[in-house]
Amino acid sequence: MTFPLWSILPFICLLASIAIVPLVFRSWWGKNSNKFLLSLAVSFPVLTVVLPNSSDLLIESLTDYFSFIVLLGALFINELLGWRSRSGTPRVQTLDARTARDRRGA
User: Fold this and answer.
1) How high is the pLDDT of residue 57?
2) Are 47 and 63 part of one and the same domain?
3) Which terminus of the chain has a lower count of CB atoms within 10 Å, N or C?
């Protein structure tokens, strides 16, 4: 399925609202529920076209989104627990590779 050209307009509107609304309506933008309602209102026209014609696109997008969230969670936990406590310089990474190889007996 190819998307009609007008389907990029909600994305452009969303980007513009992220840039403009916090400056103009500061107190309204402070609530997460208002941001959620704005994103639903902007995405509704595209969903009304995509879902009846090709629901596979939505399932594929949700799968990609889920894998992205898992990746972000893994990176956050890695940073939170301090598993990467040293800087990622080439010298440190080379030394880590040597010590791992020495532990394996290679």
Assistant:
1) 77
2) no
3) C
